[in-house]
Amino acid sequence: MENKISEFNQRLLKDIMNIMIPKNDEIPAAGDMGLYKQIEKYFLSSKNHKKSILNILESINLHPNVRISGSFFSIDLIEKIEIIKWHEKNMIDDFNKFKESIFAVYYNDDRVVRKINWGQEKVKKIEPKWDPSILAKVKKIEPFWKKF
Amino acid sequence: MKKHEIDYLVIGSGASGAAFSWKLSKNGAKVVCLEQGEPIDYDSYPKNKNKLEIEGLTKWNWNPNFRESKFDYPINNQNSPIHPLMYNSIGGSTIHWTAHTPRFHPSDFKVKTLDGVADDWPINYSDLEKYYDENDIMMGCSGISGDPANPPRTNRPLLPVPLGDDGEIIAKAFDRLNWHWWPSDNYVDSNYFKDKWEFIGSHALMDRASVSSTDNKYWPEATKYGAKIISGARVKKIITNDQQRATGVKYIKDGREISINANNIVIACNAIGTARLLLMSSSRNHQNGLGNNSGLVGKNLMFHPYAFIRGCFEGKNKFFNGPTANILMSQQFYETDKSRGFNRGFSLQMVRNHGPALTALELDWGENHHEQFSESFGNILGFSIIAEDLPEEKNYISLDNRSKDSDGLPGVNINYELSENSRKILDFAIKKTGEVLKEAGAKFTYNTPLMRQAGWHLMGTAKMGNDPEKSVVNKLGKIHDLENVYIVDGSLFVTSASVNPTPTIQAIALMIADNLSKNGK
Prior knowledge:
The complex is a heterodimer of chains A (148) and B (521). Chain A has 148 residues and is mostly helical. Chain A is 53% helix and 0% strand.
């Protein structure tokens, strides 16, 4: 099976990602960053993640309110959030995988890494040392393990 | 009886199989180990901290169902709130553990006598003490002796891993509450941290240079003594004769079925893999599975139920630097206190901040996400709460013939319910742990009442005991129903204690091996 998301589901995924991780100052919302390609690269090659991602997208498409409205894109934000939350509550394992994929690619993106200063800091040269004086108080506790 | 060339055929090369093989081969026995996985290529571990988070969720996932390696077998977790985690390779699950290595307490072996629950073990702490020490030396233990919550022990071969500023904040909070804490024992080389104090990551994958595993500690020594490992060899069945003896096994390698004979069979596949193999080895004389006259093979499955509690601190901290776990632990609430309303107790293990993606996953998504992330990232310290799980026959594994591994052998169903006692322990522990975090200065706390992907510790499915009707193996690991089949892994645990089990698993494997050597079996 090809590790690609259909064009329709790409749009849906992008919309959901934008809701889950909105714009942050100069960094666009997650969907607008084009991260679905990274999801395809890292997570659609994993059978379990792929199944979960596609299950969530399919289930959202089949949600009664989406079907009544014609599509996810034509309903308002509050209702979209409710639909996503319904899946979070009722499809726990699939939603966790879905969410993992989105957050992992977002926080692995160079723009975000720079923004949160992750990986930029230098390794601390003066490393902490083991200092036994920290044990001064706890050492005064009488041994309390039960003897046999 | 025909004398076979192999004295001991060991199935599984992880924590226990490696220790057992080393001891017996050192004592002159001819040992062959069959391992369904392959050696780990150390270059394949994630190279940088961003990759770590993606690979930790995919190809290095602790959960075998998500790795999709052909060396794993399918595990159906639908009937369990806790999912088993393991790795199948040379070294077993020690190739991606955090190597936190506390010991059982003497009381853990006597819970029936003490608290009227479960059963006493047929062995004592004192039976294992010298093997704990031997294992600590072989695996390379960092830590410090003198812990008032535990019996005295020999000086640790390596100094403790430094606590760091954040570890000291937590230690001082315990001190102010007059609660016990102590630096964690680890099979980690603390010298590694002389040159770097940086993010290590939650999967213990980026600092492999410091973490001991059996492929880099026991196996190089065992092979010097002549032990041999056949990797990519998945055992299909243990073969027995009419005299209650095993004659050998059938295994599959590269799609071919191969038979191999041995004088003794030693099973070291963890509490799920071992029960699976015994159930797969049913035959005319053993219709309910091998060693299952008691009906207990696969039953009494124990995990350690884990809860997680986190506290968010003020400022712009870097609480992600240093090892994520194995920093310090508290055993203030380890023993039963009936006034608390439950039996047995728990340990608290300090945990640092995850990397960004895993931090974010614990926060809300949506409009508040960025604000929460900015407030949290680098500022989170917390605890994993490890509760003692008592054995119950209703918690069991069975074969799942609807799912097959890459060689067509059945997968495993996990049937497990969290007991009321465990829930009470966790609820009490969350409340008490919140007090420590508040004392340490946390602005607010939040928790995960039961961790799902937390079945690291697999125990109990082939219980040890003196009575063949109430246990699967005797106190020296021999299956009651058979003359020459032994179990040396966590399957034989009678109870679970509330600490990581690997040093105890390895000490028991060494004790069983020593006994066999002394008795010339």
